[in-house]
Design brief:
The chain folds into three domains: 58 residues, lambda repressor-like DNA-binding domains (434 Repressor (Amino-terminal Domain), Orthogonal Bundle); 133 residues, 3-Layer(aba) Sandwich (Rossmann fold); 129 residues, Rossmann fold (3-Layer(aba) Sandwich). The strands form two sheets. A six-stranded parallel β-sheet has the order 2-1-3-4-5-11. A six-stranded mixed β-sheet has the order 7-6-8-9-10-12, sandwiched between helices. The termini are far apart. α6 packs across α13, α9 packs parallel to α10 and α11 crosses α12. Helices cover 43% and strands 17% of the residues. It has 345 residues and is of the alpha/beta class. α8 links the parallel β3 and β4.
């Protein structure tokens, strides 16, 4: 049998709106409105045009349509790492918040463009994204050590929402926990449990961790002379965290009985390191983390931590970005941290 004859009976593929309009006997504008499901076109005509489009394999070029409307349908999700270029997107906190943000953006009809920014290598990292014409808005995970740069851009670029710290008078919209209060809660809990020789594990180059350390320091200072807090600047890079913790703990020896970790990842690595040297948690040293990631329930012992409501924060970040894209005001949100008591402290 000659296959060519069968193929001749197949509907001709339509290449553009003008061809479909001629076939339907209407204007190109009517076709465009019908394919966009606009109510301006009567239902019978709309259904007839849509059926013709399906039969002839025609689909609107969505990107071209969005560009004509000066919209891309894409939101940039940036992770600035000026504080520690060795940190990866695979960091458990990044992955948890990234997943929550991606779900919210998808439900809002947007696509996601993910980028890990190293400001030391690309000083114009934020300018380049907001002026690229490729995105409708920007979400950012963390302020790193780039607070001033974010503030500068926010003066003229409204659709920018950051997970991070809010400082009085700042221009950019931030959603995040009260990090100072979280650090204070962690240290105060250990002090109330009878621990007096505390250590804070975390590098304070980034704003959020600096505030957690300040909160822990305030709790210890308010307790009196019998309590002390040692700062051990552990970085967030998983590749180097374990060795840094081992060296730091070896340096303080048995002079620490309570640890406030700047993140759950640091806390979990600390528990592993203590266990490898025969130090029991919480009997010998109590450990408290910060984040309450899903992994916190899987450690042995389960991790006592300061909870950041990541799911709530993601919803609020996207809601505030959508408001700003619509020309509406949206202000920062400071979420209260919560002490979650489990077995490690």
């Amino acid at each position: 049998m000659d296959d060519t004859r069968e193929n001749d009976t197949a509907p001709k593929r339509v290449r553009n709106i003008a061809e479909l309009a001629r076939m339907a006997g209407v204007s190109p504008g009517t076709v465009s409105r019908a394919l966009a499901n606009k109510s301006l076109v009567n239902p019978q005509t709309r259904e007839r045009i849509q059926a013709l489009a399906r039969a002839h394999g025609f689909q609107i070029n969505q990107m071209a349509s969005k560009l004509r409307r000066q919209k891309t349908g894409v939101i940039a999700l940036l992770i600035p790492l000026g504080h520690d270029r060795r940190q990866h997107i695979s960091d458990p906190f990044f992955l948890t918040l990234l997943g929550a943000l991606a779900d919210q953006l998808t439900e809002s009809g947007y696509h996601l463009m993910l980028s890990r920014a190293i400001p030391q290598e690309d000083p114009a990292w934020l300018d380049r994204v907001v002026n690229s014409g490729m995105v409708d808005g920007v979400l950012m995970i963390g302020q790193s050590d780039q607070f001033g740069e974010i503030e500068r851009i926010a003066q003229a670029y409204a659709p920018l929402v950051v997970w991070g710290t809010h400082r009085p008078g700042q221009s950019h919209c931030a959603v995040g926990s009260d990090n100072h209060e979280g650090g204070r809660l962690a240290a105060q809990y250990l002090l109330d449990r009878g621990h007096r020789a505390l250590a804070f594990l975390g590098d304070t180059t980034g704003i959020e961790i600096a505030e957690r350390f300040a909160g822990a320091s305030a709790a210890v200072a308010g307790f009196g002379h019998e309590a002390r807090l040692t700062h051990l600047p552990i970085h967030l890079s998983v590749d180097e965290m374990t060795d840094e913790i081992a060296a730091a703990l070896a340096g303080v020896g048995h002079r620490v009985d309570g640890i406030v970790a700047a993140s759950d990842a640091i806390a979990m690595a600390t528990i592993r390191q203590l266990d490898s040297t025969g130090i029991k948690v919480p009997d010998d040293v109590a450990v408290i983390g910060f984040d309450d990631l899903p992994l916190a329930r899987l450690t042995v012992p389960q991790l006592t931590t300061i909870r950041q409501d990541i799911a709530w924060g993601a919803r609020e970040m996207v809601a505030r970005l959508m408001a700003r894209l619509g020309g509406e005001p949206a202000h920062s949100l400071v979420m209260p941290p919560e002490l979650v008591i489990r077995a490690s402290a």
